[in-house]
Design a protein that fits this description.
about 35% helix; HMP/HMP-P_kinase_dom; 8 helices; UDP-N-acetylmuramoyl-L-alanine:D-glutamate ligase; about 280 residues; Hydroxymethylpyrimidine/phosphomethylpyrimidine kinase; binds 3-hydroxy-5-(hydroxymethyl)-2-methylisonicotinaldehyde; EC 2.7.4.7; Ribokinase-like
Length: about 280
C-alpha cells in the first residue's frame, strides 16, 4: 500500500473516524505536545483521544514549569478510552516521570493492547527545558520500548538513550541497531541536519534492513512541535494500516508541509502548522 501524497483517506461527515490515542503533555501555547497531536490528527481526518501526562506552563519563549498528572489518572484515561471508544493506534510524547512510564506500560500489558504504538521519547523542549526526569530513562528503555512498534528519537535523545554520538551514517546505523536491541519492532533515528543543512536524513531499522529517508529540510525558526507532528502523522498512517516504512514516508511529507505553513507566534518560536490543509 503506497500513499499518494501528504493526505490520508478522510471519512464522510457523520461517519466515525479512526481513532488515535495520544499519551502526552499539554502545551499551554498550543504548538507542541497533545495539542500538536490533536491538530494534525484532526486535519488528517482522524479522531484523537488523549491521556494527559503533565500540564506544562509555557509559551513560545520556553517551558517555565510543569505539573505531573498522578500515574493512576494517566492509566485511568488510557483504560477509559480503549475500553469504550477503541483506538487503532497510539503514540506517546512527554511522559515526565518513571512512575508515569511504568503505569503506561503496565496498563498497556493489562489491557493486552496490540495496536501500533509510536514512542517519541521526548526528553527536553527545543529550548533545552527538561521534560523527563533523568531517572526515567531506564523505564523508557526497559518498560516502554519493548512495547513500541516504532521509536522516534532525535540525535540528543539517541545520545541519552544509547550513549551514541551520531555524527555520520555509520554512527547513525550503530544507533539504530542499539535502539532496536532495546525491543521496539522498528527504530527511526531522526538525522536532523546530519548530512547537510538543507537535507533531513532519517534512518529506519527493523533488525534486518535499513531504510533511508532523505528529504529536503526546511529551515524556519518556527518549528515548535515538529517532532510531535511527525510521530502523530505516523500514528495516523499506522491506524489506517499502512506499513511502518510507508507511515514514515507519509509523515515526513506531512511535517514538511506543516513546516512550510509554520507561522510566527509570540516572541519566540512559532509552531509548525497543519492548518494548510484547510486551504487544499
Ligand atoms: O516537542 C516536544 C514536546 C512535547 N510535549 C510537550 C512539550 C514539548 C516541547 O516543548 O512542551 C508538552
Amino acid at each position: 500500500m503506497t500513499l499518494p501524497s501528504w493526505f490520508l483517506p478522510v471519512p464522510p461527515a457523520g461517519a466515525t473516524p479512526l481513532r488515535v490515542l495520544s499519551i502526552a503533555g499539554s502545551d499551554s501555547g498550543g504548538g507542541a505536545g497533545l495539542q500538536a497531536d490533536m491538530r494534525s490528527l484532526a486535519l488528517l481526518g482522524l479522531h484523537a483521544c488523549v491521556a494527559v501526562t503533565a500540564v506544562t506552563v509555557q509559551n513560545t519563549l520556553g517551558v517555565n514549569s510543569f505539573h505531573e498528572v498522578p500515574e493512576d489518572v494517566v492509566a485511568g484515561q488510557i483504560e477509559a478510552v480503549v475500553t469504550d471508544i477503541g483506538v487503532q493506534a497510539a503514540k506517546t510524547g512527554m511522559l515526565a516521570s518513571s512512575a508515569i512510564i511504568d503505569a503506561i506500560a503496565r496498563t498497556w500489558r493489562q489491557l493486552e493492547l496490540t495496536v501500533p504504538l509510536v514512542v517519541d521519547p521526548v526528553c527536553a523542549s527545543m529550548h533545552g527545558d527538561s521534560l523527563l526526569a533523568d531517572s526515567a530513562l531506564d523505564s523508557l528503555r526497559t518498560q516502554l520500548f519493548p512495547l513500541a512498534t516504532v521509536v522516534t528519537p532525535n540525535l540528543d535523545e539517541v545520545r541519552l538513550l544509547v550513549g551514541i554520538d551520531v555524527v555520520d551514517s555509520d554512527t547513525q546505523r550503530a544507533a539504530a541497531k542499539a535502539l532496536h536491541a532495546l525491543g521496539p519492532a522498528w527504530a527511526l533515528v531522526k538525522g536532523g541536519h546530519l548530512r547537510s543543512a538543507d537535507r533531513s536524513c532519517d534512518l529506519l531499522y527493523d533488525g534486518a534492513d535499513f531504510y533511508e529517508f532523505d528529504t529536503p529540510r526546511l529551515s524556519t525558526g518556527d518549528d515548535h512541535g515538529g517532532g510531535d507532528t511527525l510521530a502523530a502523522a505516523m500514528a495516523g498512517a499506522l491506524a489506517h494500516g499502512y506499513p511502518v516504512p510507508d507511515a514514515v514516508a507519509f509523515a515526513k511529507r506531512w511535517v514538511t508541509e506543516c513546516l512550510r505553513a509554520a507561522y510566527p507566534l509570540g516572541g519566540g518560536h512559532g509552531p509548525v502548522s497543519p492548518l494548510f490543509r484547510l486551504h487544499r
